Amino acid sequence: MKRLTGVFAMLALTVSLFGQGGEYEYLYKNLPFEMPVVRKPVFPDNRLSVADCGGVGDGITLNTEAFNHAMTALSAKGGGTLTVPFGVWFTGPIVFQSNINLHLEKGALILFSPDFEAYPLTDTSFEGLETKRCQSPISGRDLENVAITGQGAIDGSGQAWRPLKKEKVTENHWKSVVKQGGVLSKNKSTWYPSDKSLKGAILSERNLNVPREPMTGPEWDAVKDFMRPVMISFVRCKNVLLEDVLFENSPCWTIHPLMCENVIVDNILVRNPAFAQNGDGLDLESCKNTLIVNSTFDVGDDAICIKSGKDEDGRRRGIPAENLIVDNCKVFNGHGGFVVGSEMSGGVRNVVVRNCEFLGTEVGLRFKSARGRGGLVENIFIEKISMFDIATEALLFDLYYSGRSALEALNENVAVVQEKAVPEVSEETPVFRNIFVRNLISRNARRAMYFNGLPEMNIENIQIEDAFITSQIGVELSESKDIRFKNVTIIPEKGPALLLNNVKNMTVDEFTCSEQSPAVRMTGIQNENIHLPPSMRLN
Question: Per the structure, how many domains does the chain have?
Answer without folding.
Answer: 2
